Amino acid sequence: MVSAGPVTHSLHSLADADWPRRDGLRALTAALGAENIRWVGGAVRDTLIGVPVHDVDCATLHTPDTVIDLCKRAGIRTVPTGIDHGTVTAVLKDGPVEVTTLRRDVATDGRRATIAFADRWEDDAARRDFTINALYAHPETLEISDYFGGLDDLAVRRLRFIGNARERIAEDHLRILRYYRFQARFGTDLDAEAEAACSDLSGTLKGLSRERVASELIGLLSLPAPHSTIARMRDQGVLGVILPESGPAHIEALAALIEQEAAQGFSPDPLRRLAAMLPPSPDVSEAVAVRLRLSRNQRARLISAAERLSEDAKDTHALAYRIGTEFASDRLLLLGEDARAIAAWERPQFPLKGGQLVEWFGVSGSKVSQIMRFLESRWIQSDFSERFEEWEFVYGLLALSGKLTESEIEHAKNWRKQS
CATH top-level class for 1-157? Predict the structure, then answer.
């Protein structure tokens, strides 16, 4: 039986897109000259496959100093955001655009590259990672220059390294993770050479900074359906290098979570998904958060998710009140429980202040906080409905529960007489 081969998709036209007609881009073209610049990368790629465009990048024959000078003459403000690497950001009326001088690699060590400016579009394209990212569009005619077959790859939704995959990875080891992230986003037809290279060279990821690894992992987990890619990464030995705590059961837990998010209308959340990929152990979650250099809030979310218990689903509003709706939603979704009831729930404010207890009952010191905890617990149990703002209700509850001394009861009665 003859294989049907990959499905070919029709590509959209740049001429039908709005962004090339933006006033700011036209002003930048006039300032730098149409023959000296090309729109490149994500904006071109995404337009061709019908994905909304957010950022526009520009490649240019001009050096950074010339870009700054020409933009200044045209009244365009620039910021030297990455001038050592040839990048200047032009601040336009419809959004910033990174303008980068054509480059070629002089030396690479897997983590960083030493570059030199180039004067040929082909040289700049050759140093990029994937064929679909090396598409250059003329700013006026919108004609696309494709040096490595990126258009054909886009048509069959195939992610392919430019040239030899192993050489591209040797230049920058992070390209392994970028491959999986881009493949999950754009690819359906797997490239055997790329898959083998990523698997064989996965050990090189150990030399990368934790922040770069975390950024790529978070980016992958932010995509709508990354489960199959994550599972493939584990099978190919890549995931074990960056997240050895994640086993087969945790990959299945990720799949279950993604189903719950979709069924309940929750947006993809990378931190929640990362929690699914780990054993439900606060110690493990904290160690992973430290290793990946996550923020304090991200670390807290990961640890909270690891503390989930089946009892959390018994009173979802009480759970949300105690730990917040975001953390509570994480736990419920990870447990496979319904989190919709608390998704837009506004945490009520406990109607009693410590100062009122001091005024009403003459309590002081640690007893104020003890009574507050007791009353707040009762209020939560009542589904936040009991009348704790009323003196009579609070007095009766505390007196019957034996929380007040005789002198405090006397103080309360005198206060009531005088109020």
Answer: alpha beta
